């Protein structure tokens, strides 16, 4: 479903645009994703709306069939990319799982600010973004997915999320569509 409206109190939630993940091998170039996410963040701030920057500092402890190599992250692993221009009023949520709601204060932070809708960007489309979108939908938020401000190391997984999963969880739009509606309704 295409973007129809922005609620009175939306929040931007940016998933895992951090130095460590941006430097991982196999991640597609993030320049456009970062630039579009930064543009949305600047617009949300300009309109006095919440910006939530999410980083990942670990992984869930459960076993999987995919082996996880031993890894010691560098000291700046969780630092957000500079282009996001983190501001003192931004909310920072650090997660240990794919989704930003599980075992974090995200839901409380959003509800305390009267947020009813979230706009999602970031990486990876089929993991962190999709998991957060699913939880947001289950928590009763209206979900908007900025499909040109996200990517995945697996192009087919990205397309599956965008084409098959996201329309069931919310509305999809380009960053420009979101920016235009934000400026029009504020």
Strand content: 15-25%
Order of strands across the main sheet: 3-2-1-4-5-6
Q: What summary fits the major beta sheet?
A: 6 strands, parallel
Mean pLDDT level: 94
Seen as an oligomer or otherwise, the chain set is: single chain
Which H/E pattern describes the elements?
EHHEEHEHEHEH
Radius of gyration computed on alpha carbons: 15 Å
> What is the percent of helical residues?
25-40%
Distance between the termini: 22 Å
Ranges with pLDDT <50 over ≥5 residues? none
Shape designation: globular
What does this structure look like?
With 186 residues, the protein is an alpha/beta fold. 36% of the residues lie in helices and 20% in strands. The protein is built from 6 helices and 6 strands, in the order E-H-H-E-E-H-E-H-E-H-E-H. It has a 6-stranded parallel sheet, sandwiched between helices. Strand 5 (142-151), helix 5 and strand 6 form a beta-alpha-beta unit. 41% of the residues are buried. The mean pLDDT is 94.
């Amino acid at each position: 479903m295409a973007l129809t409206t922005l609620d009175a109190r939306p929040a931007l939630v940016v998933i895992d645009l951090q130095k460590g993940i941006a430097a991982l091998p196999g991640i597609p170039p993030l320049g456009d994703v970062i630039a579009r996410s930064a543009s949305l963040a600047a617009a949300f701030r300009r309109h006095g709306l919440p910006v939530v920057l999410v980083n990942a500092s670990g992984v869930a402890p459960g076993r999987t069939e995919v082996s996880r190599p031993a890894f010691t992250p560098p000291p700046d692993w969780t630092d957000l990319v500079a282009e996001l221009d983190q501001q003192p009023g931004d909310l920072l949520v650090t997660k240990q799982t794919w989704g930003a709601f599980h075992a974090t204060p995200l839901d409380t932070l959003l509800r305390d600010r009267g947020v009813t809708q979230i706009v999602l960007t970031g990486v990876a489309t089929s993991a962190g973004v999709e998991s957060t979108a699913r939880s947001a939908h289950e928590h009763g938020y209206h979900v908007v997915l900025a499909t040109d401000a996200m990517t995945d190391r697996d192009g087919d997984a990205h397309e599956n999320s965008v084409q098959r999963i996201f329309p069931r969880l919310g509305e999809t739009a380009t960053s420009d569509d979101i920016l235009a509606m934000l400026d029009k309704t504020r």
